[in-house]
């Protein structure tokens, strides 16, 4: 925001001497004691009602003490008495600035500078008016003219400083960070190491995630005990952005110790705010909650406390409580940035997509071009934009089977609740020993409907056409799933699937149809542990029956990169044993330990690698070692196109229906073939 410069009177020395009995009133005006000045000049005018200077001073005192419209009327009456008088004109114009009626002031100042192009007060007033209208480029050109008239005038340089601050902020909002940085640094020419500039520079570096530069700026800022605490709070945030959350917490603890020695309510609040944030970043949720409860006792209904409660809710999977906290913030301040965009994120976490869109758009109404709000809407758009995905892979195993398959999928969301998919799958398999060859063509159409937030019904129907030598058959396939979150941090999937075995030529020849009835359950926690379980009962067209239990207990070791380690247990039984046809033991057991890591190679390139090893036992056979591994690299070439290359290997006996050790190498490409969701226009966001 550009600070208004209060103009001093443009009276001549002789006039001031002549009116020496008004000196006290002039002093009150210069010291900003406007109500006292108003009373002084009101009394003075009772003794000298026609004194122009006293009337001007009274008008200024009235306007600056909170009644700008009344001041405008007083100056308007004076202009009738003294038409064209410069001193009255400039005060009349300035009264519109006091009332923040900048649009009305602009043509008045434009006319004034045309008539008086060398009057410093008129030129600077016009520059400030343009600045308040956020016409920074033009404002800066006029403030330069004012400085040319009075090169050492402090008021003009202060005005130029705030114009540049506003101009830099505009550049930052438009993601023109280089220009914003250059504009801020120019202010140092007039005000070396200016604190406003340093804070704005640090914020800019935080936005562009240049944490080291931000920390350097905060070190320069820390020249007093209070400023050193502000700097520590900023450095803690920089460490978080730099993914050093433990260091961020230690710095915040240091700031807490320092602020205890200083009596500054606002600084104390911001320091405890950062400290609790650091606790949350480090997943010390119990400590964070206890501290929030303690702070709330002494600071009821404060927005920063409510924002902390909302943040804690999002981190712990309690999005509903976060929405409630953000609602309370918006009751206190409807224009709150934290309230508007925070609620958008909480609604998204609650799977309420349309309200999330609306809240992000509300944020942009208050904060034009705000980067995070625009990025949030873009994220929602990318999730609901129609896509084409191509998946191609080559596999081979130790049973002399080789196969090549492709799968093309088109996904079209018609709304945030309803989407359709169409896919075509082709697989060609052959055995180099038996010379058996077979092909499969699977055409599927899917419908997905969100019954409630976090409750989605998915249905896929289609046909599987398989050919073996001169024979062919067509079988219907079906997949029905109900995905839901019955409780916080819990996911449950119930499903039925009808599929035709197509792993190798021999299985395709036998036309084995499987009917799977399954349940998948995942329990997350706020202490990094998780538990995943899959139960599946399969009835086959050859009258065989399979039961499968897979359970995994895992621990999230790191967040960035995401490192997960754990133990898996698998138990499978078949009613009938047909080892010459496919893997079908009476009892199969496997125990393994695994690790999974995912992270970023660069801004647009990610990686994934996982490996597991353990022992397996088929019926009463000897235990054998097992090993499986998978790795992939994904490159995001643009916001609408990505490519993934992967490879995987497994010798676990249950990995395929035939029980073969196998290797797969593949590639996946995803393209968003439209720029925005089909329903985007109906949202009325633009």
TrEMBL record:
Annotated Pfam families: TPR_19
GO MF annotation: an example: mannosyltransferase activity
Annotated InterPro entries: TMTC_O-mannosyltransferase, TPR-like_helical_dom_sf
Coiled-coil spans in chain: none
Single GO biological process annotation from the record: protein O-linked glycosylation via mannose
Entry superkingdom: Bacteria
Protein name: Tetratricopeptide repeat
Organism classification: Bacteria, Pseudomonadati, Bacteroidota, Flavobacteriia, Flavobacteriales
């Amino acid at each position: 925001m550009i600070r208004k410069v209060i103009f001093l009177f443009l009276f001549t020395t002789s006039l001031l001497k002549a009116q020496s009995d008004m000196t006290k009133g002039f002093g009150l005006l210069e010291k900003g004691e406007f109500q006292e000045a108003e009373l002084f000049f009101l009394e003075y005018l009772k003794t000298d009602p026609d004194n122009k200077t006293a009337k001007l001073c009274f008008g200024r005192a009235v306007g600056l003490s909170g009644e700008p419209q009344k001041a405008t009327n007083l100056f308007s009456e004076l202009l009738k008495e003294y038409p064209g008088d410069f001193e009255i004109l400039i005060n009349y114009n300035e009264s519109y600035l006091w009332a923040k009626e900048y649009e009305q002031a602009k043509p008045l100042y434009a006319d004034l500078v045309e008539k008086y192009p060398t009057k410093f007060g008129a030129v600077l007033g016009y520059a400030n008016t343009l600045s308040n209208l956020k016409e920074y480029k033009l404002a800066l050109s006029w403030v330069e003219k004012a400085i040319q008239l009075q090169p050492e005038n402090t008021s003009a340089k202060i005005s130029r400083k705030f114009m540049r601050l506003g101009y830099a902020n505009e550049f930052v909002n438009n993601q023109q960070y280089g220009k914003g940085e250059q504009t801020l640094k120019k202010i140092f020419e007039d005000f070396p190491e200016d604190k406003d500039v340093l804070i704005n520079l640090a914020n800019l570096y935080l936005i562009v995630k240049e944490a080291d530069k931000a920390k350097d700026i905060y070190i320069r800022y820390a020249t007093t005990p209070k400023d050193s605490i502000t700097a520590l709070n900023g450095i803690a945030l920089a460490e978080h952005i730099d993914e050093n959350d433990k260091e961020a917490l230690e710095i915040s603890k240091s700031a807490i110790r320092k602020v205890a020695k200083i009596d500054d309510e606002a600084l104390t609040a911001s320091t405890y705010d950062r400290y609790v944030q650091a606790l949350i970043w480090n997943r010390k949720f119990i400590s964070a909650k206890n501290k929030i409860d303690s702070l709330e006792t002494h600071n009821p209904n404060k927005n920063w406390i409510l924002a902390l409660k909302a943040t804690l809710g999002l981190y712990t999977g309690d999005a509903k409580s976060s929405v409630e906290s953000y609602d309370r913030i918006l009751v206190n301040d409807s224009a709150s940035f934290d309230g508007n965009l925070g609620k958008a994120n909480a609604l998204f976490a609650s799977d309420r997509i349309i309200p999330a869109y609306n809240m992000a758009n509300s944020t942009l109404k208050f904060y034009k071009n705000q980067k995070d709000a625009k990025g949030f809407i873009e994220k929602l758009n990318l999730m609901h934009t129609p896509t084409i995905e191509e998946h191609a892979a080559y596999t081979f195993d130790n049973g002399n089977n080789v196969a090549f398959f492709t799968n093309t999928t088109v996904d079209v969301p018609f709304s945030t609740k309803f989407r359709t998919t169409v896919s075509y799958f082709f697989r060609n398999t052959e055995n180099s020993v038996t010379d058996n060859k077979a092909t499969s063509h699977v055409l599927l159409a899917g419908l997905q409907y969100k019954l409630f937030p976090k409750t989605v019904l998915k249905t896929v129907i289609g046909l599987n056409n398989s050919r073996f030598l001169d024979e062919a058959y067509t079988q219907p396939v079906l997949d029905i799933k109900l995905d839901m979150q019955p409780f916080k941090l819990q996911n449950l999937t119930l499903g039925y699937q009808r599929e035709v075995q197509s792993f190798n030529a021999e299985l395709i020849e036998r036309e084995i149809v499987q009917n799977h009835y399954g349940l998948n359950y995942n329990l997350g926690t706020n202490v990094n542990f998780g538990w995943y379980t899959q139960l599946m009962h399969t009835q086959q067209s050859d009258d065989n029956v399979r039961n499968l239990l897979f359970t995994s207990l895992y621990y999230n070791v790191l967040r960035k990169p995401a490192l997960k380690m754990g133990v898996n247990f698998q138990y499978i039984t078949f009613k009938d044993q047909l080892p010459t046809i496919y893997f079908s033991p009476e009892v199969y057991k496997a125990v393994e330990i695994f690790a999974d890591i995912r992270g970023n190679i660069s801004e647009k390139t990610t990686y994934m690698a996982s490996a597991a090893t353990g022992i397996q036992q088929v019926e009463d056979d000897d235990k054998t070692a097992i090993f499986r591994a998978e790795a992939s690299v994904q490159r995001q070439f643009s916001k609408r196109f990505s490519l993934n290359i992967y490879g995987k290997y497994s010798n676990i006996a249950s990995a395929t229906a035939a029980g073969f050790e196998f290797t797969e190498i593949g590639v996946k490409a995803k393209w968003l073939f439209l720029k925005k969701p089909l329903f985007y226009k109906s949202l009325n966001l633009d």
